[in-house]
Amino acid sequence: MSRADHMDVAAYALGVLDEQDTARFEEHLATCWACAAELETMVPVVGLLSGIDGETMTALEQTATDPRLLDRTLMAVRADRRRTRLRQLLATAAAVVVLGGLTAIGFHSVLEDVGPTDVVAEPTVTTPVDVPPTPGSPPTGPGIGGPNEVEGDQVTATDATTGVKATMFLVERDYGTQINFSLGRLPGPRTCRLVVVRADAGSEVVSTWSVPESGYGTNTRAQELELTAATAAKKDQIKQIQVQSVDARGVASPLVTVKP
Predict the structure, then answer these.
(1) How many angstroms separate the CA atoms of 230 and 172, rounded?
(2) Which of 58, 103, 179, 226 qualifies as a cystine partner to 142, CB 3.0-4.6 A?
(3) Is residue 250 left, alpha or beta, with left meaning phi > 0 and alpha meaning psi from -120 to 50?
(4) b/e code 100-109 from CB counts within 10 Å (16+ = b)
């Protein structure tokens, strides 16, 4: 086993031998355990040196005779790779800064094109306003405590003595009759009740309420009173519906009577 055979280990590991020398070294490697062991240690070195140039490869062939040269070479390769990675990181950071600056400039340009009045545009929320009806106008259907749409049979009456005006909508239900009604020209203060008188002479109080001093449908308060009540009686069983005023002693007096 010659000295030259051992020197070929690095050259063989780096793949710089020609075809004839490669065949000669592989033939020698089959019988030399020392070269085989050295070749095994060279495998990681080859991975580290894969990115260096040809001049450095030539210098590495001398490491078989001078182990210090190998250490210096590896240190130089590692330092070069660290510098390369540092340059790459700096280039990436610079690209990020430039991209951020371009994005800010573009966004500022968009804001200038849009204009301040367009940027602050917000959806408009419209709140419905309950406008009271004018005095003497026809009722639009019970809205306080009742349905929003007019339905049922409409009946109207105005008492000649008290002047109270009543408009009622009778809606037949499974449970009996729903009574949607509005009252105008109703002075206050007072306590009132709605009484259903049946055809069989029976009667029942189906609703009670209080009237403030301003009243409803008056010169002081134009808005009429709108309420909803219910009775177990069917429409054909109702003889009349009466709005009554009840004094402090519990004595009732009729204000207006509506006949279906």
Answers:
(1) 10
(2) 226
(3) left
(4) eeeeeeeeee
